[in-house]
Every structure is written in C-alpha cells, then in structure tokens.
TrEMBL record, chains A, B:
<dbReference type="InterPro" id="IPR001845">
    <property type="entry name" value="HTH_ArsR_DNA-bd_dom"/>
</dbReference>
<dbReference type="InterPro" id="IPR011991">
    <property type="entry name" value="ArsR-like_HTH"/>
</dbReference>
<dbReference type="InterPro" id="IPR051081">
    <property type="entry name" value="HTH_MetalResp_TranReg"/>
</dbReference>
<keyword id="KW-0238">DNA-binding</keyword>
<feature type="domain" description="HTH arsR-type">
    <location>
        <begin position="9"/>
        <end position="106"/>
    </location>
</feature>
<keyword id="KW-0805">Transcription regulation</keyword>
<dbReference type="InterPro" id="IPR036388">
    <property type="entry name" value="WH-like_DNA-bd_sf"/>
</dbReference>
<dbReference type="Pfam" id="PF01022">
    <property type="entry name" value="HTH_5"/>
</dbReference>
<dbReference type="InterPro" id="IPR036390">
    <property type="entry name" value="WH_DNA-bd_sf"/>
</dbReference>
<keyword id="KW-0804">Transcription</keyword>
<protein>
    <submittedName>
        <fullName>Metalloregulator ArsR/SmtB family transcription factor</fullName>
    </submittedName>
</protein>
Amino acid sequence: MKRSAKDFDYSGETEQLAKFAKALGHPARIIILKHLSNQSCCFTGDLLDVLPLAQSTVSQHLKELKEAGLIIGEVNPPKVKYCINTKNWGIAQQLFSTLFKEDFSKINCC
Amino acid sequence: MKRSAKDFDYSGETEQLAKFAKALGHPARIIILKHLSNQSCCFTGDLLDVLPLAQSTVSQHLKELKEAGLIIGEVNPPKVKYCINTKNWGIAQQLFSTLFKEDFSKINCC
DNA sequence: AATATTAATCGTATATTTGCGATGAACAAT
DNA sequence: ATTGTTCATCGCAAATATACGATTAATATT
C-alpha cells in the first residue's frame, strides 16, 4: 500500500482504540468473545461447534484476538484454555465508553 | 475468498456490532468520529487539516462511516456537513456497553 | 512404540482495505 | 460564460484479511 510520506503517528489512545475495534470487527470474533465473557471461567476449543468455520480458521481468529490483547491462551496440551485478558478488557471498556460518552439523544443540529 | 458452504448468518446483533467495530477499526476514522462528537454541532471538511491523508482518502473513510451508519452527510454544495448519526450512535453505544458489561476486575480464573 | 487428540502453522487462493492522483459534478463568485 | 471551491468517484497498486486443507507439534492413551 502506498503510504503517506513518513508514516504518520496517531495518538496512542487512538491507535489503541482502533486496534481493539479492528479485532472486534468480525462476527466470528464477537461470538468468541461473548462466549468467553459469558463463561464464568475459562474454556477450551468447543468453539468449533459454535462457529461455521474450519479449525484452522478459528485458530487464526483466536490468534488475532490474542495479538490485539483481548484474550489469553493458556497451553495445557493437547488442549488450550482461553480466557478474556481482563486487564485489557477493562481498558477497552473504558476507551469505548469514553468514545461514546456524548449523549446526542436530546440536542442535535441535523 | 473461499467461504464456508452456504454463507453463514450470524445473529443480527452480532453482525451489527461487528459492522460498527469494523468501521471504528482505523485510527483515521476514530479521529473523524472524535472530531464530530466533540463539535457541539456538525461540521465539514476541515478534516484535511487534522489527518495526514489525501482528500480522496478522507472521502473514502467518510463513505465507510456513512455506510456503517455512524455518520450522516448533508450536502450543501459546494460543501458537505457531516454529523454523527445519533440514532445509530446510541445503538452502537448500547451494543458495546453490553459486550463489555462483564466486570472481570475481581473474579477471574487465570 | 503406535495411535489418537488437540490446536498451531504453512501454503495457497481470493476478497477487501487502504491509499494516491486524476477526473468529474455541483454550485458560487466573478 | 469562465473560474474557483469542495467533495465524490474512478482507476490503479500494494497490503491485509479471510478462509481452507494439509501438515506439524505436543502430549495422553493404548
């Protein structure tokens, strides 16, 4: 991709929020996260029953969630237990709620 | 892209949340939204001063936000006034806050 | 030692995203 | 009528994302 001159640096917060949002930007990953956050505790790979995807594809989605910092995988061969990364989950929660804090329900110009 | 057999239908809410998240998944679009939501009222294309991007690229990002339903563009040639789509903004706010409602700060298994 | 189970990774195909410059459309001002 | 301003759209290139099957790695079971 052609990139503008010197790759611009957005602010850390902006970058971080975009990164979380991007990770949430696929229905399969939303399902995974909902699954993990409903589970009172952690969980392994029964995701295959829930998702209409091949094992390798699910693994790829898990990897992306891990890279975004939203989940943690605890290896326990031959199984792996996945959990919400609670620290970053809290950060994400906060960043999104800040973004949406404005309440436009009353005043609006359009 | 190869797609699994018959394109699977995720639930409407899941699909909708993923769509909003995807639209938020780029720093430039976060900046645009912050700009619009800070502005007490609407606003046109001074975004070019804020973003390190070409006019056509910014226009593209605006289009994506429009298609995701997060903003509205009111044509007023030769200018265009952009605003937050307050109705969908509220819906997004609600969907994200539901996703993040679990509070893991205390109990956690990992 | 051989087999089974689980999940990551590799290789590959295709789709989508991001970005730019160039062009076009809509109107205002001259 | 001509020119200027603002923004959308087109055409293109490069990067990333999505998906799959096949393979590999790690361990438990037989």
